Recover the amino acids of this structure.
């Protein structure tokens, strides 16, 4: 399986010369499940770049959302495979949420120039009480787990296990500050020994006094989490829309220093569009 990053920015797209290296698209990550299936994590504007990269083909795209905030769904109407009748799009979720219809409702002929009834692709929606997350993904993973994140309006993180590899995707989550995060906290246990932890790192510690309650984490707390959870690889995600490439370079250096100071051997990088790794 190949994991690819198509959008790594938070809150709003930020195209421009100052963001060209890390990218300005909002959240979207894909995991290739098989030659005929791809898991799409969030449908921010990065999903457009992903859709433009694939040929017309018989293919199922499983879409799993962290939540319904605009920056995580706004790219869906521009997903090119929607224009092909060879495409099957399956929204999946755990039994307490059903977000597919809300995401697709952007294609209504008013907010988008085409109505959903005119879309050639076959779209299958999740339903509350229907645990499609387990049913659809366990053929590809050994297990899939869900974590209720701390974010206004609610958000969910996901853990995918395959053999001895585990990936935690936890965007839009506000951690306790680094000095109060403890080894027995539920988030630490959820991330324990993860091979890859992809985590919201939108703020700096110095910004948290003004940003507390916004539902995003500071870099120091994320590094503390990675240390306590004994994570192998930390990937900083959901970058602040105001951060330039040069500032994100500095944040990666800061995070590497914090990890070493914490006694962690975890590798670290700030996610950028185009990043890939194999599992």
């Amino acid at each position: 399986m190949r994991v690819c990053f198509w959008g790594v920015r938070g809150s709003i797209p930020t195209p421009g010369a100052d963001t060209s290296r890390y990218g300005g698209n909002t959240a979207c990550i894909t995991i290739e499940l098989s030659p005929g299936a791809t898991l799409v994590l969030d449908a921010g504007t990065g999903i457009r770049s992903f859709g433009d990269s694939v040929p017309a083909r018989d293919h199922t795209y499983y879409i799993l959302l962290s939540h319904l905030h605009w920056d995580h769904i706004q790219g869906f109407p521009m997903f090119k495979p929607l224009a092909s009748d060879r495409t099957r799009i399956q929204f999946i979720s755990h039994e307490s949420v059903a977000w597919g219809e809300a995401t697709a409702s952007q294609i209504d002929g008013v907010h988008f120039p085409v109505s959903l009834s005119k879309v050639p692709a076959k779209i299958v929606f999740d339903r509350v009480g229907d645990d499609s997350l387990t049913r659809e993904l366990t053929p590809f993973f050994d297990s899939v787990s869900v974590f209720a994140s701390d974010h206004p309006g609610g958000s969910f993180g996901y853990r995918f296990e395959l053999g001895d590899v585990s990936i935690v995707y936890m965007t839009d989550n506000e951690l306790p500050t680094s000095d109060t995060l403890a080894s027995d906290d539920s988030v630490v246990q959820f991330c324990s020994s993860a091979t890859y932890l992809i985590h919201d790192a939108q703020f700096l510690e110095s910004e948290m006094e003004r940003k507390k309650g916004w539902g995003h984490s500071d870099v120091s707390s994320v590094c503390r989490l990675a240390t306590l959870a004994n994570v192998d690889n930390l990937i900083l995600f959901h970058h602040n829309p105001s951060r330039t490439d040069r500032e994100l370079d500095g944040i990666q250096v800061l995070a590497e220093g914090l990890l070493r100071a914490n006694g962690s051997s975890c590798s670290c990088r700030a996610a950028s569009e185009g990043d890939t790794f194999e599992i």
About this structure: The first strand starts at residue 2 and ends at 7. The radius of gyration is 18 Å.
